[in-house]
Design brief:
Radius of gyration: 24 Å
Helix content: 40-55%
Number of strands: 0
Number of helices: 2
Structural class: mainly alpha
Length: about 80
């Protein structure tokens, strides 16, 4: 399993990529990724310490169930 130090390094790598061209749209995304990696590291560190995780997990949305409809049989005109 990957530990918190790995995510800290990944966050730093993303911040360095964002610093290459700070005004670009991709820099904004790199900074977002860095923040997400930091959150993952925080959550892992909290878990290791036995504290409840501070990371908010978004539950997956469930698609509504759809029932199959049977095909209507053609009426017999005889």
């Amino acid at each position: 399993m990957v530990g918190a130090p790995y995510y800290r390094l990944e966050a730093e790598r993303c911040r360095k990529r964002a610093a290459d061209d700070p005004a670009s749209e991709s820099a904004k995304r790199w900074r977002q990724l860095a923040a997400e990696y930091d959150q993952l590291a925080d959550a892992l560190e909290a878990e290791e310490e036995g504290a409840p995780s501070t990371a908010q997990r978004t539950p997956m949305q469930q698609q509504p169930m759809q029932q199959q409809q049977s095909k209507a049989e053609p009426e017999d005109d005889t």
